[in-house]
Amino acid sequence: MKSPHRTGEAQAGWLFVSPALTLIGVFFFVPIVVGLTLSLTDFDIYAIGDPSTARFVRLANYAHMASDREFWGALRNTLYYVLVGGPLSVLASLGTALLVNARLARFKGLFRVVFFAPVVTTLVAVAIVWRYLYHPRYGLIDAGLARLGLPVVDWLGDPAWALPAIILFAVWKNFGYNMLIFVAGLQNIPDELYEAARMDGAGAWARFRHVTLPTLGPTFLFVGVITMIGQFQLFAEPYVMTQGGPLRSTVSLIMLMYEQGFRWWRMGYAAAIAFVLLILVLAGTAVQLALRRGERA
Amino acid sequence: MSRRRASLGVHLALVVLGIVTIAPLLWMVSASLMPAGAANSLPPPLLPRRPTLEHYVELLTRLSLLRCFFNSLMIASLTTVVSMFLNALAGYAFAKLRFPGRDRVFAWLLVGLAVPSQIGMLPLFLVVKGLGLVNTPWGVIITGLASIFGIFLIRQYALSIPDELLDAARVDGASEFHIFRTIVLPLMRPILVTLGAFIFLGTWNDFLWPLIVLSDEKRFTLPVALASLVGEHVQDTELMMAGAVVTVLPVLILFFAVQRHYIRGIMMGSVKG
């Protein structure tokens, strides 16, 4: 039986979602699909004035990519950043979450706010702050290292250290977010599980290993996926801190896309780079889902 | 005794970590108050010997960062107000209104959560250019007026609204929009505060898209202005730190004002998700 309320409700439902869906469709989903088409053309600065000058070039952009050393460098840098920075950031978050959530800890709310503060700061602004902190002569980080009798490092000036320095900065900037998510996950673990483990004579490490870690499984998956997606978007840090240098050692895929697309207006090629990035992100997500499923089986 | 030692260890670790976390922000403020050149001396000073506001004055007058501040404020406020409303409307409908195709559409939206927004940025630029909005604040605003994450956050919260409440109002003859406005919105206040803060912070802090859309210095948002300023004034540590303070302070204040809601909202979005 269909009541008048029901039909009114269905109409209202579509009416309520349509403004948001239209905007998301036009400004998010459609551009992604158009981007795929764009990556098969030689769309350039002339085509911006007159789109009819763009030609369909099939996979030429992707073929060019295969022989482009800039692209392979950016890919290498991005994967380094994701594969080293991601796990490091997750570990920092988990460690802090365990501390903040420790039964003994007091002022939990205060510490949570302090650790979360860098997350809400403006990336560009704090990247500039860190650029000065990393200064080899006047930076506080090297001053601290020197005081401790440790060797100083030209953090952003040495091609071997620039990317690790950016990773360190990004861990500082982001660990608070995942920390909160881990705290939420930890609070969801029933106390009885720990009690039972304690009764069985499990020590602190055994309880962590056999109770905390397994029950945090879904949280790990969530954190892993969102962290990876975030890491793949590396852009503002190198843009502000190193301009991609020294020796192009900090150019990321998004930065290359930005340079090719909006500085040189090679939009076809830039769209192809964006698509490779999308495939990497989706593959990375699929791998994490599969790993998680394998663990559970 | 060992319990006491454990407690001491936990608190020591927390305090050290807390100091390391907050130190860069404290140094930013401290350096912004140093006279020009003072931060570049050896050994690098921690505190200004003679605090001065000269860099703030210069930024806000000669370098017209004040205008960029208002650009940022306008763009972030407008985006926040409209986006909150549209996301609340959609999120509530996905949670509580029964309409054909609802779950399939929502599933598609969730797929979009895994796609970084930069992927479609080149065509997006052409769309915004086609609309004649390049180098205007509207070009920045229009792409942020609805967000999948916002809809998702609202939906998670709205699921807990009891159906009886809505049905009772329907029996009384209230229209769906009236129900949304008078019953649903007040119930969702906590999550609306979270979402509002989330959108405002995200828009205020955004960099790549405004960098692409805005080309006229007078229309820059603060992050874009700061990134361009550091190109010319890289030697002026104290001036740049004052610029960083002007950019970061508003969002930190907003965060401290709503941190309770905000932190709970983030934890909720993750756990139920």
TrEMBL record, chain A:
Entry keyword annotation includes Ribosomal protein: no
Q: Which PROSITE patterns match?
A: ABC_TM1
Any idea where this protein resides? Answer: Cell membrane
GO biological process terms, alphabetically, are: transmembrane transport
The answer, when asked if Membrane is one of the entry's keywords, is yes
Annotated TM spans = 12-34, 79-101, 113-133, 153-172, 216-236, 267-291
InterPro entries listed in its UniProt record: ABC_transporter_permease, MetI-like, MetI-like_sf
Q: Which UniProt keywords apply?
A: Cell membrane, Membrane, Transmembrane, Transmembrane helix, Transport
Q: How does it sit in the membrane?
A: Multi-pass membrane protein
Q: Ranges for the ABC transmembrane type-1 domain?
A: 75-288
Taken from the UniProt entry, a GO cellular component term is: plasma membrane
Q: Which family does it belong to?
A: Belongs to the binding-protein-dependent transport system permease family.
Q: What PANTHER family does the database record attribute to this sequence?
A: ABC TRANSPORTER PERMEASE PROTEIN, INNER MEMBRANE ABC TRANSPORTER PERMEASE PROTEIN YCJO
Protein name per its UniProtKB record: Sugar ABC transporter permease
